[in-house]
Amino acid sequence: MEGIPGLTARRPSAIDRMRRDPGAILGFIIVAAAILIAFLAPWLPLNDPTDLDLDNRLLPPSAEFLLGTDHLGRDELSRIIFGARFTLLMAGSTVAIIMFIALVVGSLSGYYGGWIDISLMLVVDLLLAFPSLILGVAVAGILGPGLMNVMIAVSVVWWASHARVIRGMVLAARQREYVEAARAIGASDRRIVVFHISRNILGPFVVLATLDMGWIILGIAGLSFLGLGAQPPTPEWGAMLNDSRSYMQTSPLLLLAPGSAIFLLVLGFNLLGDGIRDMLDTTTYR
Amino acid sequence: MRRYVARRLATLPLLMVGISIISFLLLNFAPGDAAEITLKRQNSGISPSKEAVAALRQELGLDAPLPVRYGRWVSDAVRGDLGESYRTGSSISGELFRRMPATLLLATTALALAVAVGIPLGVLAAVKRGTWLDTACRMLALVGAAIPSYVMAPALMLLFAVKLNWLPAIGYGSPEQLILPAVALSFGTMAQLMRLTRASLLEVLGQDYMRTARAKGLTETVIVWQHGLKNALLPVVTVLGTSTGYLLGGAIIIETIFGWPGVGHFMITGITQRDYPVVQGFVIYIAVIFLLVNLIVDISYRWLDPRLHFDRQAT
Description:
The structure holds two protein chains of two kinds.
Chain A: H1 14-19, H2 22-40, H3 76-112, H4 114-128, H5 132-143, H6 147-174, H7 177-184, H8 189-225, H9 237-244, H10 253-280
Helix pairs in contact in A: 2-3, 2-10, 3-4, 3-6, 3-8, 3-10, 4-6, 5-6, 6-8, 7-8, 8-9, 8-10, 9-10
Chain B: H1 2-29, H2 34-42, H3 50-60, H4 66-78, H5 92-127, H6 132-146, H7 149-163, H8 175-205, H9 208-216, H10 220-258, H11 263-272, H12 276-304, H13 306-309
Helix pairs in contact in B: 1-12, 2-3, 5-6, 5-8, 5-10, 6-8, 7-8, 7-10, 8-10, 10-11, 10-12, 11-12
């Protein structure tokens, strides 16, 4: 049977499939570039993003200020770059918190079932009964301005739907043979969940986390846009957008720069997440 | 079907109680003392004496234990009294009632736009799969998902109102003033509907009964629009439920940007002016609406899908 094309063609591996997916590649490039730039920001030759210079307000792009200056004379380019650093850190931490809570709740719920499941899912349903943005704005509004509060607000509102999804995955994984086998050789519940089940839900979990970065970035920027999150002089894209509204006519770049930045980064994460999901999907032949 | 409806209706009161507790707790965690703020307002900004505050607290029942206060708040809320604004003293439910039409107008127009544009584009993308039209639509969907409303709205404002001067930017009353906010709000949902319709229709078109229809000699148009679409639209109906929540939430931002006098704008001013009863009233108001809409959508979905319409018979 060797040498017959079609019968012996090797099924493309995961990496091969990813290579053929232009969207995923683009997403990866965007995210990797953003992380790199954000990480290197303090060492790059940039002006201080919080440096006020009222003599140089609202300047158009020039050699010294590649994206011009904002309404308080600060270098727009460095604000965007430090904003990236800021956004990635905040969104990353928030996603980590959300995923942690959702994992714990979802696993407990899915694995043990019974009362634990019923009561936990009741809390989840309650949280899901509110439109998330509204609840987020309400909680952030009540807690007051500040980044910590925004992170708390977004985390509280967002973990619920993921908990549900993880619970579903754990439920499905629990039925599988490897769990029975593990139990047969005497593995404790905790070991089964942490080792065996976790490794099998890792794929969809990574997809969820990646796509979530996009949503969380939008959420945090949105709350900052409404004045609830980052406070001046912190360079945060949502807050920068809000500031730019008054100067839309004279300096549209102040609107377009953070707007494009948000758009690009979210797009990058979305493409990357979709790409990873397609990569893990071994059922569709490509 | 009936069992499902019964089950959902049974959990409704429990959920209502839950969201009322959460909304009640919101105000509780807010800083500031209600009695002190009320007196301050009534005395034109002069800080009241401690005795006056204590007296008012007792009169308003603010000294009572938490469950008692909750019970009183619920009984008021059920009768339509959501308290008074810290800032103006006017009835919150009255204000919400007055402002709701504006928000409804915006949200329904946005939803109509999203459906009218998103679904046909999705059908088109599915039918012309692989062509540049399909790719263009999918790009549009990706862009729509990544651009937040608070970027889209000012950008639209900048282009159409400021630079081109075709449409008015701010204001409420004339149809032209509705266009920009509605389009900005509809974009995200439009992209989502387009993507979902395309995926759903593609899946449906691959099914066996489609082959049967073609074998029977029906034209492609009839096949796609009559048989295919009817079934493909089922998942879209469920998305309409969550879209309502998204639109109501997105309306907050759009209303703030365009100065649209709706409930969302009211809530934001409430937040910026630390008028916490307004925030609380708004949250429970929207939550109840959202809950009911989702209930209706879920039941409609089960009613429309013949596979789910009939309860599974126990054997």
